[in-house]
């Protein structure tokens, strides 16, 4: 009997997880779910995070050294960053157009707004405190943060991925510049480590359906508590806002990316979607571009035919600096909150949101909820009450799952475009997924 493909296993695990969460809330099994099922979801996430830093470090070093000359590295790097910035700006502008057209913030009553403020007061305060520390930094602080003072400290923190990327690029470039006979043993070492890490990925992914089940089962239970109708009622109240964000994210996946894949990538979008689907499902369930990175790389290379030297450079970089979904969400959320407070934003203020959201997306960690902290900075820049973030915290986890899916799809899209322009795209005749 043919084994069920991984993405279908993950999809089944997600569905069963949601159903279990609703059932557990109805039958009073909340404590049981949180104590005995949810921890396995946490373990699964920890396993993915465990290999995130080693994978980025080793894959980037092997990717850079495989380019073999500095001029080629410079050309590919310039293309990659230019494409990432372009898709991010498109996402932010699209979000602003939609939120101004639909005006979801005007659907809130003052009573409901006050209720949200009180319910999420402590969380809002924590987000504001986190963002304040970032806001007080100088204009060149992001540049300072990229250069680590101790690479070993950076490798112990998944939030310091930019520093790991900086070191990996510097190390890889240095290997290109030293005599080939001296560099070859080091290259062989990292190639072997890379193979071992990818094998670890295969082992971890065997548990993916079960990890996703536990993850979503625990999430639904935490959201609903002992009253499943509470979750439904809350989602209905904020449904309009969620719909606007979802429409924007859907347009990115089904309009913006297809145009790029078909025109520049010279590839049928159905083929592209089928190839990247397992990574999309994992991104949806984990809400982490970094945690999904191993699967994204595997899909790009095996299913889409993207050369390894391109995928190992473009995708790790994208998981850190390319957050199209997060940027779109931030622009919609900022104007939504302004509308809820009755604030009319000028064109200048909204252009400021474009700039701030684009730059904030570069600094956002590729982990669940990081975009919410960066949103506070966007709100402060536009003069929107930070307290209004309480309005969107309830459905944020669901939207985080959706926007992470867009983030990962955007990374794969740019990777394909770079590969095509470099003559490094060789689509397989048949897509196979483990």
UniProtKB/TrEMBL annotation:
What does the entry list under GO cellular component? plasma membrane
Primary place of residence?
membrane
> A single GO molecular function, which one?
symporter activity
Q: Which GO terms describe its biological process?
A: dicarboxylic acid transport; L-alpha-amino acid transmembrane transport
Please state where this protein is localized: Cell membrane
Q: Extract the SUPFAM superfamilies matched here.
A: Proton glutamate symport protein
UniProt-listed InterPro entries: DAACS, Na-dicarboxylate_symporter, Na-dicarboxylate_symporter_CS, Na:dicarbo_symporter_sf
Q: What does the record say about its membrane topology? A: Multi-pass membrane protein
**Segments crossing the lipid bilayer:** 12-30, 36-61, 81-102, 160-179, 200-225, 237-264
This protein's UniProt keywords: Cell membrane, Glycoprotein, Membrane, Symport, Transmembrane, Transmembrane helix, Transport
Transport: present as a keyword of the record? yes
Protein name in the entry: Dicarboxylate/amino acid:cation symporter
Lineage in the entry? Bacteria, Pseudomonadati, Bacteroidota, Cytophagia, Cytophagales
